[in-house]
Design brief:
By secondary structure, the chain is α/β, with parallel strands linked by helices. The protein has a single domain, classed as Collagenase (Catalytic Domain), CATH 3.40.390.30. It contains 6 helices and 4 strands, in the order βαβαββαααα. A 4-stranded mixed sheet has the order 1-2-4-3, with helices on both faces. The N and C termini lie far apart (about 35 Å). The relative contact order is 0.16.
Length: about 140
Amino acid sequence: MIDINNESSLELDTTLLETITQSLTDKDVELVVTNNAEIQEINKAHRGIDKATDVLSFPYEEMPYAPLGSIVISEDMVKEKAAEFGHSPKDEFSLLYIHGLLHLLGYDHEVDDGEMRQKEEELINYFKLPKSLIVRTEDKA
């Protein structure tokens, strides 16, 4: 189950998000949808980075019955990136959600040997989504 705190005007495809979640874990996930100003504050407080970002993930300590963790997504970034890459905000949101969920599951594209990228590509192909966050980032390099 996803516990959603949607502080935005985005309409979320909760059925798709639940399906994505259930394909990867049986743990609950907290999802917060906010704006750039709020996610910038969270990013600064928890990562020491004073700028807005698209998605943040906060895994919880592994305990019986505990949720997997929290994912925070910026509505502003969803709209901006959807327009930039020419796809729907729903698709962009789904990409960011997958990215955040994989981080909660322990994947880390900054240090792995492509495992997160591979898993992300499997999921975006399965759910028929556009290019993933990692693929877009690597395309720019």
